[in-house]
Automatic annotation (TrEMBL):
Alphabetized InterPro entries for the sequence: IorB_Oxidoreductase, Pyrv/ketoisovalerate_OxRed_cat, Pyrv_flavodox_OxRed_cen
Organism taxonomic ancestry: Bacteria, Bacillati, Bacillota, Negativicutes, Selenomonadales
Keyword Cell division: no
Record's protein name: Pyruvate/ketoisovalerate oxidoreductase catalytic domain-containing protein
Entry annotated with the keyword Nucleotide-binding: no
SUPFAM superfamilies named among the record's database cross-references: Pyruvate-ferredoxin oxidoreductase, PFOR, domain III (SSF53323)
Entries under NCBIfam families matching the protein: PRK06853.1-5
Length: 189
């Protein structure tokens, strides 16, 4: 059985790094894994998505509309943008975090209100405060690893040796911080 995880966010949030760590862990656990990423205007704060599919045999890296088991959104407006990709019985983990796009920054549009309420009215939604938790850990850059932790717990992937994955893929001086962030994320869901 193939599982599909859709990670979405805004350029600079570490969405791609989180998906690469996830993919590495899944591969080391023996799954067949396919990953694809769309950067969009990621260097300028544009939409970024990463699709990770894993199981015994994965034919395609692409998650079709209505095909994601879980949607993990690093920024809350992106959750609404990608919601149509969620399975009818899928779930959403959304970071209660706003990044203003260029049209909002230029004053052409206002940031939409009621996003979390709209999501919750449509699908099972877990709202997390990953930015706040990262700040409590002393480094806002580990928000992505906190959100990775929410995926691990939500998908039942705790048995994978994440300490090794983190140790092999981050600088040694940041290993302990990232392990704390991973645990913090798992504790949020």
């Amino acid at each position: 059985m193939v599982k599909s995880i859709l990670l979405v966010g805004v350029g600079g949030q570490g969405t791609i790094l989180a998906s690469k760590l996830l993919t590495t862990g899944l591969m080391e656990a023996g799954y067949d894994v396919k990953m694809s990423e769309i950067h969009g205007m990621s260097q300028r704060g544009g939409s970024v998505s990463s699709q990770v599919r894993y199981g015994d045999k994965v034919e395609s890296s692409v998650i079709e509309v209505g095909g994601a088991d879980i949607l993990v959104s690093f920024e809350k407006m992106e959750a609404l943008r990608w919601l149509k990709y969620l399975k009818p019985d899928g779930k959403v983990v959304v970071n209660d975090y706003e990044i203003n796009s260029m049209p909002i920054l230029s004053g052409k549009f206002d940031y939409p209100t009621g996003i979390l309420e709209e999501l919750s009215s449509k699908v099972p939604t877990k709202v997390v405060h990953a930015a706040k938790r990262a700040a409590e850990l002393g480094n806002p850059k580990v928000m992505n690893v906190i959100l990775l932790g929410t995926i691990i717990r939500s998908m039942g992937l705790e048995a994978i040796n994440w300490e090794k994955i983190i140790g092999d893929n981050v600088k040694a001086k940041f290993k302990e911080l990232n392990l704390k962030a991973l645990t913090a994320g798992m504790d949020l869901v």
